[in-house]
Design a protein that fits this description.
about 250 residues, alpha+beta, eight-stranded antiparallel beta barrel, globular
């Protein structure tokens, strides 16, 4: 299966820290994006830390600051969804500069912006065109249908669980907005220095399962206070669940 082979190659890359098989990885990434597979945010977005192992596009700032030779520098994200049905929550961006003894951490809020719908099937997956729009909860016919099925007392209906499971799946591409509200540099796990950084951006989910995530930044990160551009428009980031990428890493976030 494509996702299993991609996971295997990413695990090799995470261990060896080389780009010898990047062409194979890129091909598998494009195949998964083109599949437009739906995902469950409760199991694919919410929860554990995912390491950013591979990217396609201009080198992001988080990769540049963690380029110290001879040291494994972990980068990635952790999302915590509110669970109140609106799809919002919080996130942590994490990038090591010199291993776990020197890293930068940014925190903020994320919001569900809805599915990206295109009237042109020829558009490249994940790329915004003028004909595309975001389908939010206010105009999503599937959500209205879900409300209809969930209204009233359904009694002992064995099909309800299957219906609810299917309705929890979201289509791809799917957008979340992200707003950075604070950041800090941490030294030796003890000393923390706050950074005056604020900014906004969009995280577009192109593929997500329990082990892998593929995101794209459809626009440049808009840094409104301090710092530099975290990511540029068109950057594709491939993430692996942390325990599958670096099983010796301790989550202190």
């Amino acid at each position: 299966e494509t996702s299993e082979e991609l996971l295997r190659l990413l695990q090799i890359k995470a261990t060896n820290n080389n780009s010898k098989r990047d062409d194979e990885i890129n091909s598998l990434v494009q195949t998964l994006i083109a599949s437009k597979t739906s995902f469950d945010p409760a199991t694919c977005i919410d929860g554990p830390f995912f390491a950013s192992v591979h990217f396609i596009g201009d080198t992001p700032l988080w990769e540049k600051i963690g380029s110290a030779g001879g040291v494994r520098n972990v980068k990635g994200q952790k999302y915590t969804l509110d669970g109140d049905g609106d799809g919002g929550g919080t996130f942590i961006n994490y990038a090591e500069i010199f291993g776990a003894n020197f890293y930068v951490k940014a925190v903020g809020d994320c919001n569900d912006e809805g599915a990206v719908v295109s009237s042109s099937s020829s558009s490249p997956p994940g790329v915004t065109t003028p004909s595309e729009k975001v389908l939010t909860s206010n105009n999503n016919p599937f959500e209205a249908l879900a409300s209809f099925f969930n209204s009233g007392d359904s009694g002992d209906n064995s099909g309800n669980n299957n219906q609810q499971s299917a309705l929890s799946l979201l289509p791809t591409p799917y957008d979340y907005s992200a707003c950075v509200t604070g950041a800090s540099i941490v030294l030796f796990q003890k000393f923390s220095f706050n950074l005056s950084i604020e900014g906004t951006g969009t995280v577009r989910v192109l593929y997500a399962d329990d082990n892998l995530r593929i995101f794209i930044s459809p626009t440049d990160t808009n840094v409104t206070k301090g710092g530099g551009d975290w990511e540029s428009e068109g950057l594709v980031v491939v993430q692996v669940r942390m325990d599958l990428a670096y099983d010796d890493w301790t989550d202190r976030l």
